[in-house]
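We emphasize that the prediction below concerns an isolated chain of 736 residues; any contacts that depend on oligomerization or on bound cofactors are therefore not represented. The input was used exactly as deposited, without trimming of termini.
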Amino acid sequence: MKKTLLILTALALCAGCKEKDANDARVDKLMAKMTLAEKIGQLNQFVPTNADVTGPDGSPVDVKSVIKEGMCGSLLNVWKPEEIIEYQRLAVDSSRLGIPILFGHDIIHGARTGFPENLGISCSWDTEAAEKVARISAAEASAFGLAWTFSPMCDVSAEPRWGRVSEGSGEDPYLSGQMSAAMVRGYQGDDLSAGNTILSCVKHFAAYGAPEAGRDYNTVDMSEMMFRDRYLPSYKAAIEAGALSVMSSFNDFDGIPASGNKWLLTDILRNELGFKGFVVSDYSAINEMVKHRVAADGKEAAELALNAGLNMDMVDGDYYKYAEELVKEGRVSEKQIDRLCREVLNIKSKLGLLDDPFRYGGEGRWDKETCLPEYMEASRKVARSSMVLLKNQNDILPLKENARIALIGPAADSRSEMLGTWNAFVSSENAVSFFEGLKARFSNVVCERGCDFFDPIDGGIAKAVAAARNSDVVLITLGLPNSCSGEAASLTDIDIPAAQKSLFNAVKSTGKPVVILLVTGRPMTIAPEAQAADGLLVTWHPGSMGGAALADVLSGDYNPSGRLSITFPLCLGQIPIHYNYKSTGRPHLNPDSDAKYVSRYLRTPNEPLFAFGEGLSYTDFSYSDLEVSSQEVKLGANVQVNVKVTNTGSRGGEEVVQLYLKDVVGSRTRPVRELKGFKKIYLEAGASAVVTFEITPESRSFFRADKQWGEEPGDFEVFAGHDSHASLKCGFKVVE
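Result of the prediction step, given as a token string:
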């Protein structure tokens, strides 16, 4: 049997080698025919003037002309199938070598079937769900003719003022890495050339999630230790999952913009992480190095980017204008151009474009292969598992079957507000609003908007109050619209807008039980409303089937299982706040103490409103029998951890079992605890299960004082439970 397995393994490896050899040979043959200008052409991405423009300037060139010249490697934001076919036909038939174009678009959380924003998806703590979202997104995007998406966003962020926090997977590097890797697998599948899988792009490399003051495009300043411990692991996980493109970030890192940072793009990304794909700049990021004031002009910016190892210039045209000149002047080597071009062509070959330029898209695929019933059902399931129940006073939820329900608020009957930011080609016509979803499930539901997101409506509060008085329970949507999430949507105030506060207070004054449905793409400072409300459910922007998913949760047809992937601050002044903080020399160990000479605020606690990992269920779970396989292990050895979980409530439900690790003493200061494992399990009422984790040497490793990544001997504490406050504890020692 062993011999058979060895033979099969050898055959598989041999097949892989043959595929690689054939791919390399095809690219070698093509490059031998290419002029220097044509090689540079593969490094240019443009956006036609009639396509979606998502930056300060559109393309500086006549796109059809550069395609004919063989000077266009990729087009951005072209998505209409007939236009994709037209441009591809032009490249294949009118350029000298007929090299096909790679079409890319921001398919972030759905193409035509809308899913929750990525921050919401991460709150499911379900990697299979994340992979399915990406798989469906790839199938739909490829039906349009697209072969490349700029996703997943692997930027770890504990900065809720930053609008793009909605596009990532929260504040924790381990959770973010697991969700990002799952999305890479979903997009790219087992066969990148299948025609219904697409190229994923890890972004934004690197540390884009830590802009000063939470302001988009702003500078990032951190130590290498912080970068390697907290920010790099998520990108690393996605690359190890097979991602074959990476996007450089807008920000500087250690004073050098990422798009011209050789340490990031070559030393770390390629040499250390072993990345084998190609790097594209973010929108106009190469030319923006002039405004960063590290390049005198576009020509110098292009020089920095090319020598740093950035393969493709997104839209600003500096490679198109200056690359050939830079080679002739000896400022960039032709060998470097060859390498950068080869990496792009290699991916085009892997996608099957060199064999069949029209394998993506095709007549009628976008009608036949999108918004399928099974896709919409998947959207519903992911949405409901992403919703996080944070308060349920007196078991106000689930709602009684015959309850008179007043649904109030600016998002109460809005299909468009279900969709979130970067919603690609998702149509609100296919969406189910909260009101529509609840009407289909409950017999007595009335709806009043009451106010807009930021402005009052004449007579709106009076109508909302009247509806509330005639109800048994009030559901009120509070939060922020789609436009307040995503790129270029940073805020200094993440409070509930004043018009909504007035509406909430008026409705609450009726004395009826009030449940907040928080519609948002970021954490918000909602302490007064959360305290006053009887219930609080974070719905995020839940996607196409948001209303149906909400009805599932509120009715009890689905027991909520979402857990926060990011901390909700008590107030704005706590930001940045995250669970994996470091202890100081004067820690504030007792939250009830008002001791003065410790690390604390006056008049405000250090603790957040809701912590990382928090979330309620309609049942209860208890933890016991936490144990490790050995009290003492050697460096390089695994430690097995077992914990017993019991459903002590009256109904079945899912629990996210969370495992945290504390390195008691290290050569550098260490976080108070770090997430190192999680498993989502289902238990019937009264049932128990033993959940097993492996603590590997890698999970114990960090950027040590000797500036090497690795583990150290010493004591470790292990915690398991519902959230980052888990108190059930055991420990082990690592020895040399």
